[in-house]
Amino acid sequence: MTGQLQQSIRSLAAALRDGTTTSVALAEEAIANHARFGTALDAYKCRQDDRFLAEARAADAAFAAGLDFGPLQGIPVSVKDLYGVAGYETFAGSPAALPEKWEQEGPVVGALRAALAPVAGKTHTVEFAFGGVGSNAHWGTPRNPWDAAAHRVPGGSSAGAGISLCEGSALLALGSDTAGSVRVPASFTGNVGVKTSFGRWSLDGIVPLSPSLDTAGVLARTVPDAVLAFAAIDPLTDIPGEALLAALSELTAGDVHIGVCDHFFEGCDPGVAEGVQAALDELAAAGAQISKFDLPEAAAADEIFMRGGLAAPEFAAFITGEMAKSKATLDPNVAARFESMEAITAVDYLLRRARLAELAASADDRMADVDVVVGPTVTITPPTVEAVSDGEGYRTNNMAALRNTRTGNMLALSAVTIPIALDKAGMPVGLQIMVPLDEDERALAVALAFELVLGDRVQRLGAPPMCQG
């Protein structure tokens, strides 16, 4: 990727306002980047370049009229194909378009509309978001751009989101996260991913997987870009993005007490734990206080997740009910588990809900002893498409991909992942920063402080091999 879109959103926002560039110029460059890299990477389910350019022209017209709607005005954004976007069909990864009601825009997309951020297109998702590796039997699996030799998965379920950032066709990407579906693809593709607190961002206009666990979120290339997106979308933030960024930037790494939980380091592939430990050593050298931290609630929540958690029965109810026509064409990896999902009793479901509420409250109390809890975002190297092509390979890798991220959903935490290393296979490694519910700003402030010490993706990892030049 070359050109203007290598710059930060802050730099481009300034350039748009001083006339150095235009939104149309950014959109044209985004289209060119996609034309250059997109055929090989396949980030998008659908694009409408004419519509994209029209929205860019509208942003430029607003600038010309003296209207400023914030730092995202004129900035290209990709949207996961679970979100309703006017003028686009919604497939949610399924083989046929969903009913028209799912094309209606909700508050999250509405916030980007209010900011005049042009939509570059809708990115691929795992079918109905039910999976963490990023594969899709109907539309194919987008290619992780960090391996030019082998087709590795991009992480899911927001499978195309991180790739759209890597190829330079978007500067922000909307995703959703039920067990890691923002953080896994962010980690696998070397990007920043923000899992917001449950209930903080509206889920209206987004195809559901598990209404008890679903959260809307955003992927970005750097933490400052993510903060600007958060400020534009978050309904509880009442200050402009630049002001929020300035306020959160007051925190330094030396102000942070980091809890390191051994649970999140178990089963790591070569280079993952080592990369995270190296980053922690750098943060300690910068003054961060680091101590061992035990979070037994994570293992207890894992046991519930392995039995289907809340997502399996809630997803089964949605498919059996409103989406009954889609049941016959479900991805075989999902269909194979459907009978067991439907067999979960109401009593078991309610007991699970009650137990998870207890565990979340306990974890919240325990986390008061530190500012953040950290560990590898994902313990494994992104597997090849071949490795997840059969049922057993898929199940093993899917569970492994979600192992550390699902804790955030099951225990009602907020979390941010930042890229901090390449593993032994040369694939990105993420550092997950977890905080209690409704402490989203703290997670972002800590991520900013960490990135200042460690460097952003380009500084730390370089460019993806398939997106260079």
Mean pLDDT, all residues: 97
Counting DSSP H or I runs of 4 or more residues, the number of helices is 18
Shape assignment: globular
- SS class: alpha/beta
> What is the topology, as strand order, of the major beta sheet?
1-3-2-4-6-5-10-11-9-7-8
The CATH topology comes to Amidase signature (AS) enzymes
Largest beta-sheet characterization: 11 strands, mixed
Detail the poorly predicted runs: none
Number of domains: 1
Task: Write a structural description.
- The protein has 469 residues and is an alpha/beta fold.
- It has one domain (4-467): Amidase signature (AS) enzymes, CATH 3.90.1300.10.
- The protein has 18 helices and 11 strands.
- Helix 4 links the parallel strand 2 (77-80) and strand 3.
- The longest helix is centred in the last third of the chain and has 21 residues, at 346-366.
